[in-house]
Amino acid sequence: MDTLTHHSVLARFGYALSDPVRACVLLALRDAPSYPGELAELAGVSKQRLSNHLTCLRGCGLVVAVPEGRRVRYELADRRLGDALTALLDVVVVSEVECCCATRENHVDGRVCC
Asked: Where are the domains of the chain?
């Protein structure tokens, strides 16, 4: 089994957080386990699109799928990940409101920044 270096681990974590849908899913799972339909509704995407994001998050080792009969529940792979997300939110400071949009419809200099 290959051992990932620290920078590779952080790069995978950064990649997972780089998409607003995946970030939304991680933050939702920080609060409680959930089901794909609920997560899709929360993120405002189709179940198929959400499935692709869940596959990515599983591949990054951040979430796990727990079978429950005919349903599958998703949860964070480790509870410490929820603590890490909370800590990350606590240290991120937005210094320029114009540089981080509240919605994807808002653009700064023609680009979507968040």
From this structure: 6-77
pLDDT tens, position by position, 45-68: 999 999 999 999 999 999 999 999
Helix (H) or strand (E) holding 48: helix 47-59
CA dist 61 to 68, 110, 113, Å? 20, 34, 26
| Domain covering 6-77 in this structure, CATH number | 1.10.10.10
Place of tokens 């792979």: 77
pTM of the model: 0.76
From 35, 26, 37, select the one nearest 86 (Cα to Cα).
26
- Write out the two tokens for 8: 């590779």
What span, in angstroms and rounded, lies between the C-alpha atoms of 30 and 111? 29
